[in-house]
Amino acid sequence: MSVPVGHYQYDRIDRDFLQARIAEFEGQVKRRLDGTLSEDEFKPLRLMNGLYLQLHAYMLRVAIPYGILDSRQLRKLGQIARRYDRDYGHFTTRQNIQFNWIRLEDTPDILRELAEVDMHAIQTSGNCIRNVTADEYAGAAADELVDPRVHAEILRQWSTLHPEFTFLPRKFKIAISGSPNDRVAARFHDIGILARPGEDGAPVFRIFVGGGLGRTPVIGEELFDSVREEHLLATLEAILRVYNAHGRRDNIYKARIKILVQAIGVEAYREAVEAELGQMDLEQYRLTPEAVEAIRARFAVPLLEAPDDADAVLTQQRRDDPLFDRWVRSNTHVHRDPGHIIATISLKPAGGIPGDATSAQIERLADLADAYSFGEIRITHLQNVVLGHVRKDRLRDLWLGLSEVGLAEANIGLIGDIVACPGLDYCALANARSIPIAQKLGARFADTALQAEIGALRINISGCINACGHHHAGHIGLLGVDKRGEEFFQLTVGGRAENGAAIGTILGAALPEDETVDAIARVVDCYLGRRESGETFLDTLTRLGHEPFREAAYEAV
Amino acid sequence: MKRPVRLEAGQKLVLTANRLLDGRTVWWSAEGTWVPHIGHALLLDAEEAQVQLAHATEQAQHDGVVGVYDTAVQDSVPPEPVTVREKIRAHGPTVHPEFAVETAQ
Fold first, then answer.
1. Helix, coil or strand: residue A346
2. A54 to chain B, closest Cα gap in Å
3. How far does the signal peptide extend, from start to end residue (chain A) (predicted)?
4. What DSSP designation does A77 have?
């Protein structure tokens, strides 16, 4: 088998490990079914293998390391959805995929099928280091300084089954980007890493620590500005050790690293990390250029060849077809190669379920990836899909292919590109349903011309305070709350996850579910009525402050 | 043992759980079995529910269920859960009508 473009090629050791792990879990499932293991004993074991028990069924969360798949892996996910689920999968805000209708007794078989394509569900739950996320345009974007995937893979290998970090005080999330434009919400992670070239050309890493959303949203603080590549693992190890030693284990709501950093201050945390580094055998953790190159060699590099007139062809096609032009405007990004372009495929059809894709769509995406992007697919933390290396003169053919399976929505970064957690329709933790509100908003703003007129405006919806829909980081955020068994939604405005990260401000009392969509429509109308030329929603909000938007939201209440 | 739930007028309690094998929502019936349709759920007063809950929890592994608890319903035919959460558990996700669970079968 050839080396896949975009992600690490497994070897025999990786595959043998997966088989051993599956056999272990199969034994645990058998012991659970025969009663040898109680539910209390089994629960942490199944969670370590990505298996949750939700409202209607078991849910299996499958890891997609740094969000990158090859077409055979994507095809396998489509087959699993068809065979073991109800013909669809849900892409998550952690660049993973969830299957909502899984049977416990089928799980070992599903894991075996995943292992056939070098996939698993390990560490997609539990108090461990979760799936490391990365820039969805990694290795493709013109604005990128360092391709973060090789280091993301190094972090994956370092964090997988790390003996010290399997039972942390709480879950731990790491994101890495190599672009000056933060597309990974680095400052809302337990550790956010921004790579750039150092003076000698070798990468250095700016490290933020203690960010997060959830019950206590916090913007991460810079711990180090320029960690050298050779010290990256030692530094992360030291950060985790300090957290593991001092993070709270007496209160689940105060157990994340952000609480520890807030409690002692980032300076004290830095001192503790430096003290830890001072007593570590740094040579043991040294990331040598040879080690990095050995990992890099397991990634195939796409051969980016395009005809000289590729750009001219695309320009002409855009002139000839306004609908295609609109899609290109919203759903593409500049590639580092002038003959190529990055295409983002929206999983947010008007009135649809954010992040859901049917088996047929998943398999068609795999075919399109083979035809147009070296068989490589990226899942974004905004619940969309990216084909990273599309020849410009073939982009319209891709768009036509997407149209055939309902995947040509022109709304990336616009109001229809809503991020939503599964909410109370599935999730055992949720207080309110996220998806129906997303569907109503999607239908309300279905007109793509209207969406383009509104411009950049991101809506994020979470069904509970755990904030899987990242509502704190939404330009408009919705948090579902339960009031005596009924659904209400709290509105926030002004959140952002990109550069200049900010936590949204609560506008006022939570609104009943059936008043929420109208309230948001009034907030949008307020913006459209008062914006000045060239302003985005966030620009107008910054200029006017929250009060006009608060008045608009509550004017009819 | 947990204290009896305070029920409002016109409300009863039912016992619910998830099936161990596939996680499906189930309800405790008058026949002393776990059934997938809330229409067959046994309606209980608060004190009766306490006794039945203790018994069902003890028997959970034998009966192949997980996470037994009680929840309030309107005393109607068929019974209707009081909270949105339990309505969704009883009838299926609201966003996929094709996956709806019938009240009784």
1. coil
2. 8
3. none
4. H
Quote the tokens at residue A302.
């796409």
Helix or strand run (H / E) with residue A512: strand A511-512
Residue of B nearest to A55 (CA): B89
Give residue B105's pLDDT.
58
d(CA A285, CA A240): 14
List the single best residue of A425, A429, A435, A441 to mutate versus B (max B Cβ within 10 A): A425
Q: Is A434 on the interface with B (CB under 8 A)?
A: no
Domains detected in chain A: 12-116 (3.90.480.20), 133-296 (3.30.413.10), 310-404 (3.90.480.20), 419-554 (3.30.413.10)
Q: What is the Cβ-side half-sphere exposure of residue A143, based on CA atoms within 13 angstroms? A: 12
Structure tokens at A13: 């050791």
Q: How far is A123 from chain B (nearest CA, A)?
A: 21
> Does any CB of chain B come closer than 8 Å to the CB of residue A436?
yes
- The answer, for B7 touching chain A at a CB cutoff of 8 Å, is no
CB A265 within 8 A of CB A273: no
Between A55, A57, A430, which is nearest B22 by CB?
A57
pLDDT at residue A370 in the model: 98
Is A53–B25 a contact, with Cβ atoms under 8 angstroms apart? no
**Confidence check: pLDDT of A208 > 80:** yes
How does A105-114 read in b/e, with b if 16+ C-beta sit within 10 Å? bbbbebbebb
| Confidence check: pLDDT of B5 > 70 | no
Taking the CB of residue A41, how many other CB atoms lie within 10 A of it? 12
Alpha helix (H) ranges present in chain B?
Answer: 46-58, 60-63, 84-91
Identify whether B99 is part of a domain.
no
The token pair at A170 is 């709480």
Total domain count, chain B: 1
Q: Where does residue A200 rank: exposed (0-12), middle (13-18), buried (19+ CB within 10 A)?
A: exposed
CA A80 – CA A88 distance, rounded (Å): 9
Q: Is the ipTM of this complex over 0.90?
A: yes
Domain that holds residue B31: 11-94
At A180, list the tokens: 């000056």
Q: Rg of chain B's alpha carbons, rounded to an integer?
A: 13
Residue B102: inside a domain, yes or no? no
User: Does residue B5 lie in a domain region?
Assistant: no
**How far away is chain B from the Cα of A407, in angstroms, using its nearest Cα?**
19
Interface test with A, best of B18, B19, B86 (most A CBs within 10 A): B18
Of B23, B61, B99, the CB nearest to A53: B23
- pLDDT tens for B30-74 read 999 999 999 999 999 999 999 999 999 999 999 999 999 999 999
A145: CB partners within 8 A, 6+ apart: A178, A179, A180, A195, A196, A197
Q: Is B24 on the interface with A (CB under 8 A)?
A: yes
Tell me, yes or no, whether B18 lies in a domain: yes
Q: Does A426 touch chain B (CB under 8 A)?
A: yes
- According to the model, what pLDDT value does residue A4 have? 85
Distance from the Cα of B88 to chain A's closest Cα (Å) equals 6
User: In the prediction, which pLDDT does B102 show?
Assistant: 74
- Residues of chain B with Cβ-Cβ distance to A58 below 8 Å are 22-23
pLDDT 10s digits, A333-369: 999 999 999 999 999 999 999 999 999 999 999 999 9
Look-up of token digits 């089994």: A42
Residue A183: strand, helix, or coil: coil
B23 interaction partners in chain A (CB closer than 8 Å): 53-54, 56-58, 102-104
Q: Do the Cβ atoms of A10 and A379 come closer than 8 Å?
A: no
